[in-house]
Write a structure and sequence with these properties.
Blueprint lengths: L9 H11 L43 E4 L2 E4 L14 E12 L5 E6 L15 H11 L3 E3 L1 E5 L16 E5 L1 E12 L2 E11 L1
Antiparallel strand pairs: 1-6, 2-5, 3-4, 3-8, 6-7, 8-9
Length: 196
């Protein structure tokens, strides 16, 4: 069973973009340097669809609350420096990221169940999906958890601090990555497509 993810704050995205802006090509050289900038958003889950079958949501009892996983170690997707691409209009590919109960990524799967993700089904974009897969496999999260309380669970538990028991659980999150290349410069916007 899976639960829908909450969006990541926009300030994190702005910080990542600002931190990576210094990687752009140097005007004093003729060598083209590839750079990536990242923004994150989560896509809402599509009703009753999944690559390998239906992904079920966690159902909470009144004494339980769900704590979303928190991404704390992540590399940005990047095309290889020797890519044959010289330009690319904004192209979005989406993946479903399966996270185990310890917060490690087990695998990612192409997500094709919505129109904004259709470019991932084009064989010409296989390199984009590969770049995303290679990046997300190294991501680490503070694990998702079901927090068990003696009384009623708080409406918005942040960290399960007062829980009687914390049960670490696997979760699936959906992400969208928009690649764009102009004059040999790669730009990637990363966003989520919801979670279950």
């Amino acid at each position: 069973m899976r639960l829908q993810a909450q969006p990541v704050p926009a300030w994190m995205a702005a910080l990542a973009c600002a931190a990576l802006a210094g990687c752009a090509s140097n005007a004093d050289t003729y060598q083209q340097v590839r750079s990536d900038a990242v923004d994150q958003r989560l896509l809402p889950p599509a009703a009753g669809t999944a690559a390998g079958g239906k992904v079920e949501r966690y159902t909470m009892q009144p004494q339980q609350a769900f704590r979303m996983p928190l991404l704390h170690d992540n590399a940005d997707p990047a095309l290889p420096a020797n890519t044959s691409r010289h330009s690319l209009p904004p192209t979005t590919v989406c993946v479903r990221v399966i996270i185990d109960a310890q917060g490690s990524v087990e695998r990612s799967e192409a997500l094709l169940d919505r129109p904004e993700c259709s470019a991932g089904g084009d064989p010409a974009n296989a390199d984009l999906l590969l770049a995303v897969d290679q990046a997300v496999r190294g991501w680490r999260y503070v694990p998702a958890a079901v927090c068990h309380y003696r009384e009623l669970a708080p409406q918005r538990p942040a960290d399960c601090a007062d829980a009687e028991r914390i049960e670490l659980v696997p979760v699936t999150l959906n992400y969208a990555f928009t690649f764009r290349m102009e004059r040999g410069q790669v730009r990637v916007q990363r966003g989520g497509v919801g979670g279950r």
